[in-house]
User: Fold DNA-binding Lrp family transcriptional regulator from Naumannella cuiyingiana.
Amino acid sequence: MVTAIVFVHADVARIPEVAEQIAGLDGVTEVYSVTGGIDLIVLVRVRNHDDIAAVVADRLNKIDGVVRTETHIAFRTYSSHDLEAAFSLGD
Assistant:
């Protein structure tokens, strides 16, 4: 499983509609509307790297209202359980 985190800059007047369309794409597991320098954070989970291109470049980027994207590929996943263990002081 390959996970990509996609930062989406969207037409501000269309953020809810853009988010709904992105959420409906195969391979997209979560879409967050966020504060700060970007408008949406999208989690894409697919079987291989080629599938990321299919989701992001071939479909997500073509949604009307998407202005720009920046895609980050995750190397490793840490669950909250793993993080608690990593920072535990040996209670």
Observations:
- Helices lie at 15-23, 49-56, 80-86.
- The chain is about 25% helix and 35% strand.
- Residues 15-23 form the longest helix (9 residues).
